[in-house]
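Board notes (copied after class):
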Amino acid sequence: MNKKVSITELMAETAVLTIGLTFYYWCWVRTDWKESYTYIQNAVAGGIICIIFLISYRVRKFHKEPIDELARANLKRCDSICLKIFAAAMALTAFIGGTLGHVANTASFMGWVIMISLIIISILRIIIFKVMDQKGV
């Protein structure tokens, strides 16, 4: 039996991918080193690759299903809202980096702000979409 793929499921899988990428970012920017970190880093990379293949398979399956026009319109509106929020957050991050970059090393700070912003925006995207979809906007 073929189960339909919902937009919400795809968005949740993308949020999991974002969390995995953030964990992989931590693997690259940590300041200490232990022998076990190599195994952790390789396992995380393998998990990320598996998630990417899973998402691509499910997206292809989703595109073969009947189109829910209202859900896709809500997704476009939701993505537009999230893009504006993310652009504002990145502009603020750049401003902070530009003003504080002369005082202290802010590259690591800016990297973490970007990665955490990606997680927040992917979760916010799901919430906004669910609210729009429930109200039938």
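Comment from the instructor: The two ends are 31 Å apart (CA to CA). The chain has a mean pLDDT of 86.
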